[in-house]
């Protein structure tokens, strides 16, 4: 039983973690490229309608958080957001590398959240720390028709990743409340492994007691 247990330990940084790093790089690149292009070809306040009044581009510098929240917050709060975001993204990355590769849905969700967080963190560090100006995170996607503030692709990645995290906790993970599909089998396997370890621990204690 011990040998089987050892074979099913979470994987290292090698192998299947590479696709996660590649996805992360692609998402961050998409976010940064769209920000740079908007910054080059649009002035702050420029609007470009794409689909009537429903959807378009509106370039602004957002010195708040996602979707324009907290734009009037004091500077110390914004610095705290930068530090907190960095710590949170690092924590998510550690969790990602410790997860079993079979928990793919949860891993993908984490990649999206971290990529979005890092994308906006780069803007915050540059415009509010490295080269302090009145600028902030570059936003260009106008969602005012839907009741939302202007945002960027990083915000989309964070939102999509957060929704996926909730779905993973509910359905698509071995530790989900209501596991479905292959995750139901993983949940059963995890429970069997837990019971086996508990039994092994009990037997070890019994042996030590008898030998003592």
Tell me what the structure shows.
With 212 residues, the protein is mainly alpha-helical. The protein has one domain (11-180). Helices cover 61% and strands 9% of the residues. The protein has helices spanning 2-7, 17-41, 75-98, 104-130, 153-170, 182-211; strands at 47-51, 55-62, 137-142. Strand 1 and strand 2 (55-62) form a beta hairpin. The longest helix is centred in the last third of the chain and has 30 residues, at 182-211. The model is unreliable at 1-13 (pLDDT under 50).
Which structural class best describes the helix and strand composition? mainly alpha
Q: Give the overall pLDDT as a whole number.
A: 82
The ordered string of helix (H) and strand (E) elements is HHEEHHEHH
Measured by DSSP, the beta-strand proportion falls in 5-15%
The count of DSSP E runs of length 2 or more, i.e. the number of strands, is: 3
Widest sheet: strand ordering = 1-2-3
Q: So how many helices?
A: 6
Low-confidence stretches: 1-13
Helix content: 55-70%
In brief:
With 212 residues, the protein is mainly α. 61% of the residues lie in helices and 9% in strands. α3 packs antiparallel against α4 (104-130).
